[in-house]
TrEMBL record:
Keywords: Oxidoreductase. InterPro entries: 3-OHacyl-CoA_DH_NAD-bd, NAD(P)-bd_dom_sf. GO terms for molecular function: NAD+ binding; oxidoreductase activity. Residues 7-167 form the 3-hydroxyacyl-CoA dehydrogenase NAD binding domain. Transmembrane segments: none annotated. This is 3-hydroxyacyl-CoA dehydrogenase NAD binding domain-containing protein. GO terms for biological process: fatty acid metabolic process.
């Protein structure tokens, strides 16, 4: 089983930035990636805003500040370099199979061999997405329900070749 410390989220939109906030609150280091700086910056701003709201309500935990959590967040527009040290990648890009497969191909070629690759899709074949990689055993679906901050429910979906370790 992989000891996850570094998480990369590809896609800084609604699901991506919300997942990023959740992972930061879970104590992970997070890198938020998108195709344009403005998209990444918008996602980072939304994470910061969300954390500050929770901090004001005393919901981040004792001794935990939004600034501390934001200190664990990096941003990038270069998927290949962002995934170099990743233990876990969550893809949250547009629901187009060709786009998802290209993202997974890039991740497969650049992420460490132990890295789990997850997609946030709820409608597309995990097996087909995994076919773009040389590690279909490490590809899973991880669907967050919206809004992820409030809905404490994640659907974990196996592809035909997803391993038990990846699913854990």
């Amino acid at each position: 089983m992989v000891d996850v410390k570094n998480i990369v989220i590809i896609g800084a939109g609604l699901m991506g930035h919300n997942a990023g906030q959740i992972f930061l609150m879970g104590g992970y280091k997070v890198t938020l990636v998108d195709i344009k700086d403005e998209f990444v910056d918008n996602g980072v701003a939304k994470i910061d805003e969300g954390l500050k709201k929770l901090e004001a309500k005393g919901k981040l935990g004792e001794g935990v500040s939004s600034a501390d959590l934001m200190g664990k967040l990096k941003k990038s527009t270069d998927t290949a370099s962002a995934v170099k040290d990743a233990d876990f990648v969550l893809e949250a890009v547009v629901e187009l199979m060709d786009v998802k497969k290209q993202v997974f191909k890039t991740c497969d070629e650049n992420a460490p061999a132990h890295c789990i690759l997850a997609t946030n899709t709820s409608t597309m074949s995990i097996t087909e997405i995994a076919s773009a990689t040389n590690r279909p055993d490490k590809v899973i679906g991880m669907h967050f329900f919206n809004p992820p901050i409030l809905m404490r429910l994640i659907e974990v979906i196996a592809g035909e070749k997803s391993s038990a370790d990846a699913m854990d």
